[in-house]
Structures are given as structure tokens and as C-alpha cells.
Design goal:
about 210 residues; alpha/beta; Rossmann fold; five-stranded parallel beta sheet; four-stranded mixed beta sheet; 8 helices; about 45% helix; binds guanosine-5'-monophosphate
Length: about 210
């Protein structure tokens, strides 16, 4: 019989420049892992075609976002491409206490804030595109943004990538399947960390007494 011990969850952060495959990987991860919940951020950005309110983001106006800042609703928030993005605090804290891991799709600024606040509860992964040409091709194929937006995102991509060495793990995403497997290994190993397995002390006490 396999022993299942109580465990503290962690915040599993995936960051990458737009177009490096993070959204696809997040979706696949959610399908392939039962113990993961996705943190749905709030944003003031306009909704894109195919996006759903409450699923991809909670879409709110600037006033509503500011109110949430004032009432300390957010665990962290940041401005990216002129829009505001924020992570709700309550959902995250209760999931972690209940032993669930929470998946975050946030940028380097958010990752840095979360790491400063709760180092022990963070596992972070940076996803690199195989090349800048490939990144631009993916952005254009997605074709949801205007040319000038794509140019701006390519500029910002280099900036985002320059923070790669602030992450626990780095993956070059040249195959979605390969990257997914690597991320699943990371999840499995991180769950086995001694410090996350709260029940171990009791288990060992019973084992040797
Ligand atoms: P997009 O507009 O393409 O969905 O997201 C733009 C950037 O904002 C991405 O790099 C994404 O990871 C980041 N982002 C999304 N939600 C949050 C959040 O709650 N906090 C922070 N700091 N960044 C976020």
C-alpha cells in the first residue's frame, strides 16, 4: 500500500515571453495533473477573441482594479504592456493550505514578488523559445494582435528573457511534448521534498517506536 501523507501545496510559476508556448503548456498541465489548480488573474486588458471571462482572466476596469489594490485583495500585481494584472490572494492561500498546488502564468515581476514573500512555497520555471525567429513566427500565427503590438511584444520578449536566471528551472521549448514531460518531472520531485511533507514526522515516529 502506498502511504499518502499530508502535504503543503506550493505555487508553481511558469513564466516566458508571450508566444513561447506557456499558455499551451499550462492547459496541458491542467489536463495531465489532478492536484493542480490554476490561479486566474485579474486584468484591465481588453478581452481577446476566444478568451472567456473567469477562465482566462477576470476582466475588470481600471477603477475596479484600483479598489482591489486598496483593499489588499491581491497577493501581487504588476503593470505589463500598459495594462494591470493581479493575482488574487484568498484562492491561493486556501489551496496551498489544503495541499493543492497552484499554477501561475505570471511575468518576472510577479515571480520576483512572490519569491520575496514566500520563497519556501514557490517553484518557478522559465520557458525559453528555441529562437527569436520562432517566437516571432508564433506571435504572427496567433495573429490576434496588430503589427505594432507584435513589435512591442518582441521588444519586451528580450527584456523578459533577461530574467531567466531568477528561476529555479529553465526549459527550452522546442517540443511541447518534451517540455510537458519535463514540467511533470519537476512537479513530481518538488512534491517529494521533505519540507513539504508535513505528515512525515508522525509517520517516522510510528515507524521507529
Ligand atoms: P497577456 O496579456 O499576454 O495575457 O499577458 C501579458 C503578461 O502578463 C504575461 O507575461 C503574463 O504572464 C503576465 N501576467 C498575467 N497575469 C499576471 C498576474 O496576475 N501578475 C503578474 N505579475 N503578471 C501577470
Amino acid at each position: 500500500m502506498e502511504h499518502t501523507l499530508t502535504r503543503r501545496g506550493f505555487m508553481f510559476v511558469l513564466s516566458s515571453p508571450s508566444g513561447a508556448g506557456k499558455t499551451t503548456l499550462s492547459r496541458l498541465l491542467m489536463q495531465n495533473d489532478d492536484n493542480l489548480t490554476m490561479s486566474v488573474s485579474y486584468t484591465t486588458r481588453a478581452m481577446r477573441e476566444k478568451e472567456e471571462d473567469g477562465i482566462d482572466y477576470h476582466f475588470v476596469d481600471k477603477e475596479n482594479f484600483q479598489q482591489k489594490i486598496d483593499t489588499k485583495f491581491f497577493y501581487e500585481y504588476a503593470e505589463v504592456f500598459g495594462n494591470s494584472y493581479g493575482t488574487p490572494r484568498q484562492v491561493v492561500e486556501s489551496a496551498i493550505d489544503a495541499g493543492q498546488d497552484v499554477l501561475f502564468d505570471i511575468d518576472w515581476q510577479g515571480t520576483r514578488r512572490l519569491t520575496d514573500k514566500a520563497r519556501e512555497d514557490i517553484v518557478s520555471v522559465f520557458i525559453l523559445p528555441p529562437s527569436m525567429q520562432e517566437l516571432e513566427r508564433r506571435l504572427r500565427t496567433r495573429a490576434q494582435d496588430a503589427d505594432e503590438v507584435i513589435a512591442r511584444r518582441m521588444d519586451r520578449a528580450a527584456q523578459e528573457i533577461s530574467h531567466w536566471d531568477e528561476y529555479d528551472y529553465v526549459i527550452i521549448n522546442d517540443s511541447i511534448d518534451g517540455s510537458l514531460q519535463k514540467i511533470l518531472y519537476i512537479l513530481k520531485s518538488e512534491r517529494l521534498k521533505r519540507t513539504r511533507q508535513h505528515g512525515l514526522g508522525n509517520f517516522v515516529d510510528e515507524l521507529i517506536h
